[in-house]
Amino acid sequence: MYTQGMENKQWREFGRTEVIDNTLNPDFVRKFIVDYFFEEKQNLRFDLYDVDSKSPDLSKHDFLGQAFCTLGEIVGSSGSRLEKPLTIGAFSLNSRTGKPMPAVSNGSGLWMESLRTTGPEASGGVPGKKCGTIILAAEELSNCRDVATMQFCANKLDKKDFFGKSDPFLVFYRSNEDGTFTICHKTEVMKNTLNPVWQTFSIPVRALCNGDYDRTIKVEVYDWDRDGSHDFIGEFTTSYRELARGQSQFNIYEGGVSVHPAGQGQVINPKKKMKKKKYVNSGTVTLLSFAVESECTFLDYIKGGTQINFTVAIDFTASNGNPSQSTSLHYMSPYQLNAYALALTAVGEIIQHYDSDKMFPALGFGAKLPPDGRVSHEFPLNGNQENPSCCGIDGILDAYHRSLRTVQLYGPTNFAPVVTHVARSAAAVQDGSQYSVLLIITDGVISDMAQTKEAIVNAAKLPMSIIIIGVGQAEFDAMVELDGDDVRISSRGKLAERDIVQFVPFRDYVDRTGNHVLSMARLARDVLAEIPDQLVSYMKAQGIRPRPPPAAPTHSPPKSPARTPPESPLHI
């Protein structure tokens, strides 16, 4: 397996499976562990060889065929399982052995995870002949994805305030390998009480103990002071394993140790204990409830069948310039794509693999339409009002180019109609099976800010996200306001439930050296990076759990001879 570098596009060998003797239908055991990035196009190449000796030199073995895909293509397939035909394509003959070698091979390698192949040619691949099929599957590694939810109360804590009782809160610390402690959670402050009941809270198990169930967890109890000099009340220690016992005599704490069967646990202040011989405790803390569940990830939903519906909306306002002139942002050069097409392709090539039918609605806004010259802010690029979907990214580009020849650029720059258009579709299916992503590519200052903010606030409760890419040299201050990274967007006093907008200016990704491939890869990475978390946040807010992955097809390949330990690594 080979992976391709994003910058230099060179293939690098990532790993090789074991050799399985004497079979045309190998099912490889060895897996490849790779980092997955939703926002990047991770190219993979699989080369298959028939091993003739123990030599690690690929040129000494028979090349059977190869397959190309992206990691996203595998992950986005049904059940994260992809079948690809093995092909020979361009090849060259090795000068020493005379055997065919893949022409793209450069001595370094590439790649990811293969499960099995079926029916490759036994004596070496031949151009034009069927070379078999490779079946690829991806599975997310478990990395302590459990989330613990718990609640504590305390009784008879020390009184620390002169004119009141205490304002207690808890601070949790994870122990480190070197004996130090790292803070991992603070509860809220309970005002003026010595018997607080704190709210239930959730924390990833890896944050609490890094997956080590017996690692010490220290909990300190403080009395809150306005000036920040909080008064120390006491502390105790426990562990995840102890907490997991739930509400019981073992989770009333005595200075860090689960308490004896008598059930009288204590929070200890070491300084007070040293100074006062009759000191007993500074109160008790009790675990009221404890539950743990596995945290769902983006890949869980994708593997469970969630489809990402991609819609693009393109700015056709007059500020883009006359498309027939080279100074226009819509100018169609015979030598290179314009900024709109580059941005669309960069994002679309990544996201297309997460939609099984590859049919993408494409809209325009800000143009006068034939034959009557009416201004529209929500017109289909393909001219079909009933079905604005285009087949694949190439279909969108074709429809975009046709629209440039038929409509008149006009204005103003209104976003609300296209946001509302996609929101209607998203609202129709809210069971977790679909999630919508709207890409808006624009050159100008937004004209309907109030209406757009209202549309986004309403859309934030729906399964959708919005990407805005600003092309040209205009000031995009208003777009930054829509991107609620710093301040959550609001409309008419109503706060958006989630941050669903990501904005970037295209000019920040223009490579001065002319390397559009690298710069567009960076663009796609940055605008898509927030989509997985936004999808998960919606599902979590709605209480939607991932569906079980679909069962793999049950077709039995021909029986192969029993496997024997590999004699040598197999290069692919």
TrEMBL record:
Keywords for the protein's UniProt record, in alphabetical order: Calcium, Metal-binding, Repeat
Pfam families: C2, Copine
Residue span, VWFA domain: 309-535
Family from the record: Belongs to the copine family.
Protein name: Copine-5 isoform X1
Organism: Heterocephalus glaber (Naked mole rat)
Organism domain of life: Eukaryota
Record's GO cellular component terms: plasma membrane
